[in-house]
Design brief:
By secondary structure, this protein is an alpha/beta fold. 48% of the residues lie in helices and 10% in strands. The protein has 45 helices and 21 strands. It has a 7-stranded parallel β-sheet. A 6-stranded parallel β-sheet has the order 3-2-4-5-1-6. The chain has a 3-stranded mixed β-sheet with strand order 16-18-17. Helix 16 packs across helix 17 and helix 35 crosses helix 40.
Length: 1121
């Protein structure tokens, strides 16, 4: 018999399943006709995670969970085919992979038929073209996937096509007439290859007939199906047939105790009303369609259809629903779904009642302290995780009996979040550490070794850019194979960047990209520079023989050359396999090559063993396809199928390991947890989008019960996630743009849930308010808006502050000083003075501390960057820090500056040959053109510098400022001037640093008559300043330096100059933000992290600008006046 056991609680279903297991084993062991104790129990589940959780729960209840199989439905049914029918292989000849390769053989031979006109455009005539074979493979893989769906959901179509029967109810193949022909050809080629003709469609009815005729035996164990939300009709029919010979028990999580298969959402009901109106039918839609509970109607279609299918097939039904008195917002939501109630009633509310706080059926009041359902708006994925970390710590503090294993965190795509999870949860201090595990990543995503191996397999179509080659080499197993240490690799990376390596093995290799043969900036070019530099000095080699096209790189000394030799062996191996991959080879030959590549490049450790086993299995599993497609295949096709094979191998073994579990929102995640967190609930991310295939006949025909849809699946997953939360439901999404703070929408499902709450609930004591006021108050209670930065003021407000919110908090104490500093104006009073009552920082004595002049100047180049480096020893990466991937095509601002500095400061008369030999000029004649422009641009600067004189002397700086001594040296010209020059524009920041140098010299009364700062477009001059005025200003800057190391200093000279000049907030903010033509200071990585929106901290910026930059501005105004 087929039994249905249903409950609204997964824990109850576990109890019933455990009782069923226990009952199966409580038999007379002397009776040989009864069930064998050695026969394994079988429980069908939909995911390994569910199997693992169920196994633990059974062990907790029975003391042991052994000899239990947890197959997936599809593998269990295939095993039934093998047990009950003859000649059934382990793997179907009509599996997706097998069909793909046979279709690759068939499709090109059929494309010229008239019926194939609609897909002929997907491919071109040239079947020998590499890109053409890749397109053929991708098309065949997609067709195979569609056919696989037909086998499961439309077996009647498949059987009709095999019998050449065109009359199929509800199917019009006139737009895609090629599909029946192609299927029949697929069956025919399978027979020719000697493969079994069986597939799920023709086996289905044979198996049902076989199972239904079997006599029921008391010695056959029953089968359980646990926690599966929905099954295809084909599978359910097999299960029903199996129940004729043994007991089959379906344990199903039912959201409601009432029949709800007739519920529809408002949109569907409106469509049906319109249709019946058009058909002039008298029967009202209300008579047979019921909206009922809004959330269940909107999200539950998958479950509704399955409930209908179950009730059509089961023989006996057992209800074990568990009612509970709701005490929190979350439990009220769950209870409403369970009872199909709206505001505590099953009656349909009138529009007036529904749109008000309620009279006959008032909104349900909830405690203001209720935190059972919360939504968090954040600016970025990192902030989502930082907020989650703090909120979980808060939950654990307030609920001592809760543990990390009670929490599950789900998101649409774990691969997007995984690196940030490691960064936030993995870097927490010991006292704030929360144990966590990441599941559902495939091994390719988790293992750097496998990622690099896939890159190696694609190296034949790579440009061999510097980044690509170094990324592969940096993998520990590769470094080990070529005997390179991490220190040697770092040194090699520096050498290669300096030597001008960009891309391409040599000049000849650039022909394949339709580029002229030019060795400059290739790997061979760089290696020649490095190896020749080890043997001789660059200047000597160049000056003695100007015919050399490569200038030796002379920073390699002594034993350092050994590392270069080992790296060269690595490069040779790369070049060899790149040519290897380009050769035409069969599937089997490609598999052998792949194994050889692994042996040649990797010396793995014990930690890599699991991944190596998976890789070898993936490669070996591809070899049998040689029988189905014996022609040569392109390396691109081989890599594609290898990646798919690796992607199918998950690493979810750590799921439910007693830690906070991070995983992807997948079917069968209805396992109960005290805290369920849903991250990434963005409008464009969930429900997840699926791109429909244009030739999918299921999409063109009338849907059937049991059909799957990605969006419907996601809606039901969302419902299951809500029902599986026992104490707290936590959601977050990216509510604001990280760049401009514009508002972004949440997922439509979150929006529906929030709307439902606003319509049905109110904060206790607020029913007497206006309806909108009640809704606004509840919305503020549910939705927390978080700051862009973790050191935002809102996280550290006193509980007495009217702006404080107990739900907006931070456990990251190191951000407190930053938050305090960022909110305080910069004081002009000295931090360090002879009369100061402040104590010196802990750990330092009372003797005077020295501050180097160079350190002070370096600080004011970018105070926020200096703060990051001082406080956290951190330097944020920016795009410009990455190695260049292309040869020079011109000069950007940085190139102009660097090359200009060299032109002005050197006496070399043949700079063109020097720069070309270093790979710094564009290739060909354009290099000459750019070089002449460069010379012309800096000609006036060179002349001005020569006129001022290059002879300099050093002046010692020794100033006592409170408890500090400012010491160092500054260069001044021999003719009594402070002279500096820059091969670029003189910006406010450069002038400010020059101003500080001038004030230092004036403070100690150095005899100088003027200060000149020569730039490309102007010469900036400063006049003498009185010594006491200069000293006060230097004292101010030193004090500001000290404060800037404790917290971010909002000092942006270029932006500040704009403010002092215009007093226009809009122009100032525009200057800070920049545009596509001119970058602003706000685009610098460190500043962006602290102050992405100047408007939020404008007062602090204004105060800092007035304090630091205004004295220089006034001095310039006085000089100009």
């Amino acid at each position: 018999m087929l039994h249905l056991v249903q409950s609204n609680k997964m824990e109850v279903l576990v109890e019933e399943c455990t009782a069923w297991l226990n009952k199966q084993h409580k038999v007379d062991v002397t009776d040989t006709s009864v069930i064998s104790h050695f026969e394994p129990d079988t429980i069908l589940v939909q995911s390994p995670g569910m199997a693992q959780w169920l196994k633990v729960e059974i062990a907790n209840a029975l003391g042991i969970a052994a000899n239990i199989q947890f197959p997936l439905p599809s593998s269990f049914i295939w095993r039934l085919y093998q047990q009950n029918l003859t000649d059934i292989p382990d793997v179907s000849a009509f599996s997706k992979d097998n069909m793909t390769w046979k279709l690759m053989k068939l499709l090109p031979t059929l494309l010229q038929l008239e019926e194939f006109e609609s897909i002929r455009g997907y491919l071109t005539v040239d079947s020998t073209n590499t890109a053409e074979q890749v397109r053929l493979y991708e098309l065949c893989a997609k067709i195979a996937d569609i056919f696989d769906q037909y086998l499961m959901y439309r077996p009647d179509w498949i059987l009709a096509w095999e019998n050449d029967d065109p009359s199929i109810d509800g199917l019009d193949t006139t737009t895609q007439p090629w599909q029946p022909i192609l299927w029949r050809a697929l069956v025919r080629i399978s027979k020719e290859l000697g493969e079994s003709e069986y597939h799920r469609a023709n086996l289905h009815y044979r198996l049902i007939e076989q199972l239904e005729t079997q006599a029921k035996s008391s010695s056959t164990k029953g089968v359980a199906i646990f926690g599966i939300s929905a099954m295809p009709l084909q599978q359910l029919q097999v299960i029903k047939a199996l129940s004729a010979s043994r007991d089959v028990i379906i344990f199903w999580l039912n959201p409601s105790q009432h029949y709800w298969a007739d519920l529809v959402d408002e949109r569907y009901k409106a469509i049906q009303q319109l249709a019946r109106y058009d058909e002039n039918l008298e029967q009202a839609v209300e008579d047979y369609l019921d909206v009922g509970h809004a959330l269940l109607a909107s999200w539950g279609k998958l479950g509704r259809d399955y409930q209908d299918m179950l009730l059509e097939h089961v023989d006996q039904q057992y209800d074990h629903f568990e009612e509970s008195i709701p005490s929190s917002l979350l439990s009220h939501i769950q209870s409403g779904i369970y009872e199909l109630e709206t505001r505590g009633t099953q009656e349909e509310l009138t529009p007036d009642e529904f749109l008000s706080n309620g009279k006959a059926f008032p909104k349900i009041e909830i405690d203001k302290r209720d935190k059972s359902f919360q939504i968090h708006q954040c600016h970025s994925v990192v902030r989502e995780l930082e907020v989650l970390h703090d909120q979980l710590l808060h939950l654990f503090d307030n609920n001592p009996d809760w543990h990390p294993g009670d929490v599950i965190v789900m998101m649409p795509d774990i691969a997007v979040y995984a690196p940030f999870i490691e960064g936030v949860f993995g870097s927490a201090k010991a006292e704030l550490h929360i144990p966590y595990a990441i599941s559902d990543r495939n091994i390719n995503q988790e293992s750097p070794l496998l990622r690099s191996f896939v890159q190696l397999m694609k190296i034949h179509k790579s440009r061999l850019t510097l980044s690509e080659v170094l990324d592969i080499c940096e993998v520990p197993a590769v470094l080990e194979r070529f005997d390179l240490s991490a220190e040697e690799f770092t040194r090699l990376r520096h050498w290669l960047i300096d030597a001008g390596v960009r891309w391409g093995w040599d000049g000849e290799s650039k022909l394949r990209w339709d580029l002229p043969v030019e060795e400059q900036n290739s790997w061979l070019f760089g290696i020649k520079r490095l190896m020749s530099g080890y043997a001789m000095q660059s200047d000597g080699l160049f000056l003695n023989d100007s015919s050399y096209k490569v200038i030796p790189y002379d920073e390699i000394e002594g034993q350092q050359s050994v590392a270069l030799g080992k790296f060269y062996l690595y490069l040779q191996a790369l070049e060899y396999i790149s040519q290897w991959h380009a050769e035409p080879k069969t599937i089997q030959e490609r598999c052998v090559d792949a194994l050889n590549v692994f042996e040649r490049f990797y010396l793995p450790t014990v930690d890599d063993e699991h991944y190596i086993i998976q890789l070898r299995q993936s490669i070996e599993n591809l070899m049998p396809h040689q029988l189905q497609f014996s022609d040569a295949i392109e390396q691109d096709v081989f890599v594609d199928m290898l990646e798919q094979s690796l992607a199918s191998k998950g690493v979810g073994q750590r799921f439910l390991a007693g830690k906070v579990n991070f995983c992807t929102l997948m079917p069968m995640r209805s396992i109960p947890f005290k805290v369920v967190c849903l991250l990434g609930m963005n409008d464009d991310a969930y429900p997840r989008q699926s791109v429909p295939v244009g030739f999918d006949l299921m999409r063109m025909s009338k849907p059937r019960k049991g059909d799957r849809s990605r969006r419907l699946d996601d809606r039901y997953l969302f419902l299951e996630a809500i029902l599986s939360a026992r104490e707290c439901l936590y959601m977050s999404y990216l509510g604001f743009s990280l760049r401009d703070n514009t508002e972004r929408n949440e997922s439509i499902l979150v929006s529906e849930l929030v709307d439902y709450c606003l319509q049905h609930f109110a904060i206790e004591g607020e029913l007497g308010l206006q309806t909108q006021e009640t809704a606004d108050s509840l919305y503020q209670h549910l939705v927390r808006t978080h700051g862009l930065q973790p050191f935002s003021e809102m996280y550290f407000l006193s509980s007495d502050d009217e702006k404080s919110d107990s739900d907006i908090l931070s456990y990251q104490g190191h951000w407190l000083n930053v938050a305090n500093q960022s909110q305080q104006p910069v004081s002009s009073s000295p931090f360090w003075s002879n009369t100061s009552t402040q104590t010196v920082k802990a750990g330092k004595d009372d003797s005077q501390e020295e501050l180097d002049v160079a350190l002070l100047l370096q600080f004011f180049q970018n105070p926020i960057k200096a703060f990051f480096k001082h406080r956290w020893h951190t330097q944020l990466s920016v795009f410009s820090d990455l190695p260049q991937q292309d040869e020079p095509f011109g000069f950007d601002a940085l190139d102009n500056y660097v090359l200009g500095e060299r032109l002005v400061s050197s006496s070399n008369n043949d700079w063109f040959a020097q720069l070309r030999g270093e790979g710094r000029l564009p290739i060909g004649e354009s290099g000459k053109v750019y070089f002449e422009k460069l010379k012309h641009k800096f000609a006036e600067l060179v002349a001005n510098v020569e006129e001022l004189g290059t002879e300099q002397k050093r002046v010692e700086i020794n100033l006592t400022i409170g408890q500090r001594k400012l010491v160092g040296w500054l260069p001044v010209s021999a003719n009594g001037q402070l002279v500096n020059w820059r091969a670029g524009k003189l910006r406010a920041g450069h002038k400010f640093l020059f101003w500080i140098q001038w004030l230092m010299l004036m403070s100690q009364k150095t005899p100088l008559n003027s200060a000149l700062f020569v730039g490309v477009e102007e010469t900036f001059e400063l006049i003498p300043v009185e010594a006491d005025v200069a000293f006060q200003l230097i004292q101010r800057y030193v004090n500001t330096y000290e404060k800037g190391l404790d917290g971010p200093l909002y000092f942006f000279p270029e932006t500040g100059w704009e403010w002092l000049k215009t007093s226009d907030i809009n122009k100032t903010i525009a200057k800070f933000t920049g545009n596509s033509f001119s970058s602003g200071e706000g685009q610098e990585a460190h500043i962006m992290r602290v102050c992405s929106n100047l408007n939020d901290t404008f007062e602090l910026f204004q105060e800092t600008t007035e304090l630091l930059l205004k004295p220089l501005y006034e001095q310039v105004e006085k000089s100009d006046g």
